[in-house]
Design goal:
CATH topology of the largest domain in chain B: GMP Synthetase, Chain A, domain 3
Radius of gyration of chain B: 18 Å
Shape of chain A: globular
Structural class of chain A: mainly alpha
Strand content of chain B: 15-25%
Number of helices of chain A: 11
Shape of chain B: elongated
Structural class of chain B: alpha/beta
Largest sheet of chain B: 4 strands, mixed
Oligomer: heterodimer
Distance between the termini of chain A: 39 Å
CATH architecture of the largest domain in chain B: 2-Layer Sandwich
CATH class of chain A: Mainly Alpha
Strand content of chain A: under 5%
Number of helices of chain B: 5
CATH architecture of chain A: Up-down Bundle
């Protein structure tokens, strides 16, 4: 695999994570339990979509086929997406949404921290910008997970159910492939597997405080970041997100 | 030659930019906000370097448009806007004048401690956080326990 091909895949992975999760979170707009949470979710989504513009913008530049970040976001089909399966899982209830956010934010914040030291200065610059936002997201999602986990019997049960449901989607974050080997060797990005220890430490601390039990299994669904197989949910998400550009190609406003 | 001598000075341009209000918080200028990182003449082209606040902030496009409009109104037609993301924007770049104006307007300025120093309405230190996010990406939502007013706090990043 050439360096540019690996870079392109890596940038799609970063940008597709934030794009797909950002879209999922934005689905709460106008539906959250209280106004403050509605605003918080919308702002989180906005940060994620903003980061997408930087990652996919750089991906398009490296691809060098005259595409823009918007083209990559709106004109690719499900099999071209490289996001973690976790990001495309439907929101379900507020508890699952916040648990998904916490599981992602923890990884995202650790990953971006390492990327600020990337040997590629364009990657380091985007990471420096995004890591400040991710740290803020993590602060909020961790607080909310503790509040709801160590809350009422109802909220505790829902958070435990959310953790049990989402847990098999965590392992994919740490699976390395050829792309990762090329980039780790070049000092562009860390080997995903190397982040697991740091990740588990944060999870253990927060989830213990939240009185939640981490499932005793390392089984991992995979296929999102490699593009081999997404869940059935991604296609449904894309029909909404891409509808306008599909129905009215090139439409601007 | 005459064109070169008619070029406005860099100090003059900073003054003009300091009169361009932030689109979301019009009480402070874009210079107060710290998003304008550099102003320089490259031969006959004026290059203005702008660093966005938050990645997804919708005001970013408006900010660029406002800079362009203001400078064109002052007769500068050869203009280039450069976006620079590193080093990332920080609230340390807010000017002291800007922080004072924010507080006067009812927005608590950022504090390294991570929360507002006092209520921007009544000055009470009895304040509590309502939500980590507020009306724009750069603000959080707080309230005062004494005058009971809710207020925005400019997040410290």
């Amino acid at each position: 695999m050439t360096f540019d091909a690996a870079m392109y895949q890596f940038l799609l992975r970063m940008g597709d994570n934030t794009l797909i999760l950002g879209h999922r979170v934005s689905e709460w707009c106008g539906h959250a339990p209280v106004l403050e949470e509605d605003i918080a979710l919308a702002n989180t989504a906005l940060d994620l979509i903003g980061q997408t513009q930087m990652w996919l913008g750089l991906a398009a530049e490296i691809e060098d086929k005259g595409q823009s970040a918007d083209d990559l976001a709106f004109l690719r089909d499900a099999w071209d997406f490289r996001n973690l399966l976790l990001c495309e899982i439907p929101n379900e209830d507020f508890g699952r949404t916040l648990m998904r956010q916490f599981l992602f934010d923890t990884w995202h914040s650790i990953q971006l921290g390492h990327l600020t030291k990337s040997s590629d200065e364009r990657v380091a610059a985007i990471a420096a910008k995004a890591s400040k936002e991710a740290a803020y997201h993590l602060e909020r999602s961790a607080d909310t997970v503790v509040g709801l986990g160590d809350g009422t019997e109802e909220s505790h049960n829902r958070m435990q159910a959310a953790l049990d449901y989402l847990w098999p989607y965590v392992g994919e974050m740490f699976q390395s492939d050829d792309v990762d080997v090329v980039l780790a060797k070049a000092g562009v990005a860390p080997d995903p597997a190397s982040l697991r220890e740091e990740y588990d430490a944060v999870l253990l601390r927060v989830l213990s405080e939240a009185t939640l039990t981490i499932p005793d299994s390392r089984f991992a669904h995979k296929g999102g970041r490699s593009g081999a197989m997404h869940t059935e949910h991604l296609g449904h998400l894309l029909t909404q997100m891409q509808w306008l550009q599909r129905a009215y190609p090139g439409c601007q406003w | 030659m005459s064109e070169m001598t008619s070029q406005p000075s860099i100090a003059q341009i900073w003054d003009w930019l300091d009169a361009v209000p932030d689109p979301e918080i019009p009480v402070i200028s874009l210079v107060d906000l710290g998003v304008i990182r550099d102003v320089a003449w490259a031969d006959t082209t004026l290059v203005v370097t702008v660093t966005p606040t938050y990645s997804g902030c919708p005001a970013t496009a408006v900010i660029n448009l406002d800079i362009e409009t203001a400078l064109r109104d002052h007769g500068i037609s050869d203009l280039q806007l450069k976006t620079q993301i590193a080093p990332p924007w920080t609230t340390d770049w807010l000017s002291e004048k800007g922080k004072a104006k924010l507080e006067g307007y009812g927005i608590a300025p950022p504090q390294p401690s991570g929360g507002p120093q006092r209520c921007p309405q009544c000055g009470s230190k009895n304040v509590s956080k309502v939500s980590q996010f507020g009306s724009t990406p750069c603000k959080a939502h707080w309230r005062c326990g004494d005058c009971l007013e809710p207020f925005d706090y400019f997040k410290c990043i």
